[in-house]
Recover the amino acids of this structure.
């Protein structure tokens, strides 16, 4: 059994610890007395019975070091909750390595089959993607080296990329999955190189089937309003900070950021973009942003197009399309994009939901793979962030009272 802190106006520290059946605080729809997040102190949430939820006394709170659980606390807690999950997945490779490596092996075979037809095709591949990984000191997440790609021999570039497909960090692997799908699989020069399609050539047939799966998935995950600046709903931030190793999507000024970090300084999209209140209305975009605001799901970098291209690559090369394999690969995407500071969990999961990953906006349980939920780490994380991980879709029930 785990302990929850419950408001106690007669206690010296302002709360008492209580335990509940199944480690679950009663809330809306349970038929039992309701408890909701009320205060915050020492990295712990204090919950209050619904009947006492409106109580707030500044002197009482200040004497006990309690802050009111409000919109800012809620958002910072949600950012921290997602960041801790994503960074743990980024470092715990066995949560996702099976499916990620499966896609990597198929991509490696695909690239080798291209070069087997004509070694000159290496130049097409390198022209399309090498600058993402040998960056001339640019700071993309998942880069291989700061060396300028044109300063390296073709063999060095090719071997570097092929090596990281299976031997790289998770961010390097996912970055390569994305680039090969977006830039190589759909490359018209490489597709034309086959000439007239025949099913006799196994490599040709395999490439065409992969391309078909990629396009099929993209049709489901990519909507036109994503690609139009006026409707996407984000704008560049003035005077954005530069590259940082701060991990996840926590705010740089937040006192909750702790020691979250990644292995590469990079420009986080969450630092570069903000919500654009002057966006052009669009029915699908309006629905998306209304739900996000109602449930306080935070703006990261805008709805995630990269989640869609990664899911398409997984479907094209790994034939990952449902069940636990899809959940595991989706968690790898969360590790890469949320851990890397590019998007919020919600911005990724609304896309994953389009191809069948269960997702109740604001919650996590149904979306995560079993190999994660069976760990003690997950149970501890769920308790630490109970207000987000379990009650995260209830914010609209108590928004007015606490200014959320």
């Amino acid at each position: 059994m785990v302990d929850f802190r419950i408001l106690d106006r007669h206690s010296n520290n302002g709360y008492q610890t209580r335990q509940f059946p199944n480690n679950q605080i009663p809330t809306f729809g349970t038929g039992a007395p309701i408890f909701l997040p009320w205060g915050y102190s020492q990295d712990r949430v204090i919950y209050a019975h619904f009947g006492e939820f409106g109580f707030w006394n500044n002197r009482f709170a200040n004497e006990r070091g309690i802050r009111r659980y409000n919109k800012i606390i809620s958002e910072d807690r949600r950012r921290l909750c997602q960041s801790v999950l994503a960074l743990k997945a980024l470092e715990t490779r066995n949560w996702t390595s099976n499916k990620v490596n499966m896609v990597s092996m198929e991509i490696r075979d695909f690239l080798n089959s291209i070069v087997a037809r004509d070694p000159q095709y290496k130049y097409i591949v390198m022209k399309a993607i090498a600058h993402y990984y040998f960056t001339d000191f640019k700071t993309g997440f998942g880069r291989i080296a700061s060396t300028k790609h044109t300063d390296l021999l073709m063999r060095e570039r090719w071997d570097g990329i092929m090596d990281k497909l299976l031997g790289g960090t998770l961010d390097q692997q996912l970055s390569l999955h994305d680039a090969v799908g977006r830039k190589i699989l759909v490359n018209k020069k490489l597709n034309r190189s086959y000439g007239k399609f025949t099913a006799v050539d196994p490599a040709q047939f395999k490439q065409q089937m992969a391309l078909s799966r990629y396009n099929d998935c993209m049709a489901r995950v990519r909507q036109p309003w994503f690609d139009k600046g006026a409707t996407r709903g984000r704008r560049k931030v003035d005077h954005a900070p530069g590259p940082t190793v701060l991990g996840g999507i926590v705010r740089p000024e937040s006192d909750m950021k702790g020691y979250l970090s990644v292995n590469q300084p990079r420009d986080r999209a969450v630092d570069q973009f903000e919500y654009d209140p002057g966006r052009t209305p669009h029915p699908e975009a309006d629905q998306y942003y209304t739900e996000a605001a109602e449930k306080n799901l935070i703006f990261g970098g805008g709805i995630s197009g990269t989640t869609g291209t990664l899911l398409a690559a997984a479907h094209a090369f790994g034939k990952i399309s449902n069940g636990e394999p899809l959940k595991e690969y989706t968690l790898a995407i969360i590790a890469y994009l949320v851990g890397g500071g590019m998007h919020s969990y919600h911005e990724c999961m609304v896309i994953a939901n389009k191809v069948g990953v269960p997702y109740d906006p604001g919650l996590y349980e149904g979306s995560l793979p079993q190999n994660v939920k069976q760990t003690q780490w997950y149970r501890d994380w769920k308790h630490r962030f109970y207000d987000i991980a379990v009650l995260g879709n209830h914010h609209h029930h108590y928004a007015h009272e606490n200014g959320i």
Notes: The radius of gyration is 23 Å. The beta strands are 4-7, 15-18, 35-41, 44-49, 67-68, 234-236, 244-246, 261-266, 273-275.
